[in-house]
Structures are given as C-alpha cells and as structure tokens.
Amino acid sequence: MVAARAVVLLSGGLDSATALAVARRDGFECHALSFRYGQRHVVELECSRMQAELQQAAQHITVDIDLRLFGGSALTADIEVPKQRAEADISTGIPVTYVPARNTIFLSYALAWAEVLGAEDIYIGVNVLDYSGYPDCRPEFIKSFEVMANLATRAGIEGSKPLCIRTPLIDLSKAEIIRLGTSMAIDYAHTSSCYDPDDTGRPCGGCDSCVLRAKGFAEVGLVDPLLQRFGMSDA
Questions:
Q1: Is the pTM of this model over 0.85?
Q2: Domain count, the chain
Q3: Which residues of the chain are under the pLDDT cut of 70?
Q4: DSSP E strands: which ranges in the chain?
Q5: What are the φ/ψ torsions at residue 117 (nearest 5 degrees)?
Q6: CATH number at residue 38
Q7: Residue 4: helix, strand or coil by DSSP?
Q8: Over 13-27, what HEC string results?
Q9: Is 105 domain-assigned?
C-alpha cells in the first residue's frame, strides 16, 4: 500500500526536526520544505538538509525568497538580536526576532506544493508553551489558515478529504518536545536553534532561542548534543 504524502516545513531547528520525525512515525511519505529567505545565517539550512537526509525524506526542496526586502526583524535586517533576557521577558510581548508574516508565507508555499503532490496534510513544528511570543505560532492562527486553505484551493473544493494543518508540538513544552524527539532517536546535534550563531554553527548561548533550548535540555536532564559537538559545556 502506498503511503499518503505530507509536506513538512523543515527549518533545521529542533522543533521542525521533531515534527518531521512525528510525520514519519504517523506513516506519511514526507516531502520536506525549507526556505532561504534572507535570514542572517544559513547554518540552519545545512541542518535542514542533514535532517531530511537522516530522516529519509522522500524529497527536500529549499525555496529562495527574500524577506530582507521588507526587513522589520532582527533576522532579516541590521537589527541587533536581543540576548541574556530574563525568562519572564522572553514570554512577554513580540520580540524583534519575529519575522513579519513568515509562517503565513511558508504555509502558503507548503499549501501550493501539497496540491501538486496530492498531499492532504501539512506538518509545522509550532508550539505555544515555550515560544518567543510569535503571533503566527498560535493555534488560532493555524486553525484560521486551515479554513482559508480549504476555501482557496481546488483540493479543498473538489478533494475527497479536507486539507489538515498538523501541529503535533503545539501544546508541548521544549522539554516535552526533546523527550519526544529523543524517543524517536533524532540527532539533535545537527539542528540549529540559535538566532545568531557563528559561521560554523556554534550557538551564541544568549539569544531567546538558545535560552529556551538550554532550559528544555536541563529539564530533561540531558546534555544538548549540539553543545557536545562544539565542545561546549553549556550554551
């Protein structure tokens, strides 16, 4: 029996690598989709390539778009990445690392590819517990996009089954995501969560994403394999 296809948004980070593993566990033939969108570093793209290979994705496409044309984010403009923020501050407000409409854009590309593939499922690794206040990581946004997707596509109108945006990590803390991924033997040494790594991929240790990742591994009682890879005792 031929496996159903799914499009998986794969950034190269810890969450998206876990989402890919969940899609595989769910029995889907996985088609991974990454973006070179003008982000301040491309280390994550090498990680996405490796994760797609390690997890035996049926296909992996990297799309070139340029969100630096708009800027408005520390990831796509010459804006300093905040570091050493308190945990309470990380979970308050929308930080400058938010890229305007990024997940809307990414999901739109995923939707287009899903139509071409005949896929009825899209996986995205958003979560709302340990996150940095991004509005496009909330379940309300995902549900609204799913409704739109089924109104705006031929597959949604004529298909036998409505398209589903799957968010397997949405209610999980970073520690729970790490536990889940570890149970599926994900190689987290080849993921990149840092907003400001050096050219080798070594994490800065101070940005919000590094702080949340370190907190997750500490709560699980594991050493982050990415840090071991770089010979770092902590982020």
A1: yes
A2: 1
A3: 130-132, 233-235
A4: 5-9, 29-36, 59-64, 121-123, 164-166
A5: -80, -15
A6: 3.40.50.620
A7: coil
A8: CHHHHHHHHHHHHCC
A9: yes
Structure tokens at 65: 């778009």
Flag whether 210 is in a domain: yes
- For 66-103, the pLDDT digits (tens) are 999 999 999 999 999 999 888 777 777 888 999 999 99
Q: Are the C-beta atoms of residues 150 and 163 closer than 8 Å to each other?
A: yes
Structural domain harbouring 53: 5-229
Q: What is the DSSP letter of 68?
A: G
76 contacts: CB under 8 Å, gap ≥ 6: 37, 38, 39, 40, 67, 68, 70, 99
- The answer to whether residues 213 and 193 touch, using CB atoms and an 8 Å cutoff, is yes
Distance of CA 134 to the CA centre of its chain: 13
Structural domain contains residue 152: yes
Q: Say which residues have a Cβ less than 8 Å from residue 147's Cβ, sequence separation at least 6.
A: none
Distance CA 15, CA 226 (A): 14
CA 118/CA 113 separation, integer angstroms: 8
The verdict on residue 178 lying in a domain is yes
